[in-house]
Amino acid sequence: MISIGGTIGTGLFLASGASISTGGPGGALVGYGLIGIMVFFLMTSLGEMATYMPISGSFNAYGARFVDPAFGFALSWNYWYSWALTVAVELSAGGLIMQYWLPNVPSWVWSACLLVIIVGINSISVKGYGEAEYWFALIKVITVVVFIIIGIFVAAGVLGGVKYGTTNFTRGEAPFVGGGLGVLSVFLVAGFSFMGTELVGVAAGESENPEKNVPKAIKQVFWRILLFYIGAIIIISFLVPYDDPRLASSGDVQDVTISPFTLVFKLAGLGPAPDIMNAIILITVLSAGNSALYACTRTLWMMANANMAPRIFGRTNSRGVPMPALLLTAFVGCLAFLTSLFGNGVIYMWLLRASSTSGFLAWVGIAVSHYRFRRAFIAQGHSLDELPYRARLYPLGPIIALVLCAVVLLGQGYGAYHDGTFNWGECVGGYLALIIFAVLFFGYKFAKKTKIHKLTECNLSRY
After folding, report:
1. pLDDT tens digits for range 214-228
2. pTM value?
3. Where does the signal sequence lie (predicted)?
4. Domains in the chain, ordered, with CATH?
């Protein structure tokens, strides 16, 4: 439920419509399908490591153990600031969503309330985080299931009085709008929608019986997420033509009335659809902020205990919550949020782009760490039968995931081209995370004189 909750969010409820508008129904399905394959391999790679070595902090620690301490250092800080900036993004989105009902109240007031709620949930205990995330995820799952069922009824003419055929799949340039470039555009955007699946690995160190529960979660979560995304895109494509101007603008959190989910519910004759979807998207924002704060605090706690961050952030209270790490993350999230209120939000947009791109760097870390882990495991005389869970198609799986992640990372500059003009600001924003990662990696490597571990010397101690 943590992985599902971390993945089903505004990327599905809002941005899926914009993806159909950009690449057409066929382009959207291919783009999300390719990302789904990549995530499958990443999840199985993470599952193999997390079940054998359930550490809070997960793949960031694996990078230091199986590759190079500098690689683990750069991965850890990259993952921390990625989720810290996500906290700022969700604070901003929460304020905008509340203005749908109460437009006269400043958005920052609602953002502050949202921050108090997610800090409070994370302060209770890890059980408090897990319980809240379970219910947030359940609401989102029910919404998607109901949407797919109602969408089928609408497409069949049972609701709404109109029987839809396959005309939207052959309309104009459909099914593939813009050809290969259209698919590439969707591919670049779709990856951000799946961010959060790796949280199951971050939580493995604090889960009950990880050897049994983590593989079970990984097997179920991937197929359910893929079903939700692919199923929803098929329904939207059947009912709303790709050239509907509302789809092109559906990624705007300020106007929930043009969410593709709202459009389909309206076709079914559900009058209060905008209010329902706005409430669900608000829950989505709460869930994302909740998960972001959890991931940040555990990552910073892990770094402090690995001498990669000040020792104070390795302290926990009587409930096992790393409060110093939690408070620092909340503070950084506030600072990042404030940048959205000044200077026309240019710095905020750069931070937003860096946060999104750094998620792919985390996935690169998973693929590289797993490739090295399996090789080290064999080199040190272990048998694969010792693994509680074994990833499929090794070494092809992590290699495919690594290549697809590289395509997304290198393609970030694609969005800087608009009608033959090049926007340097957008280009820098797209590659900012790569620059920060390189500075962290080489800076730590130079300062600590670290080297890539020999396979026979990698630390495979389980706890």
Report:
1. 777 777 766 777 788
2. 0.86
3. none
4. 1-248+255-448 (1.20.1740.10)
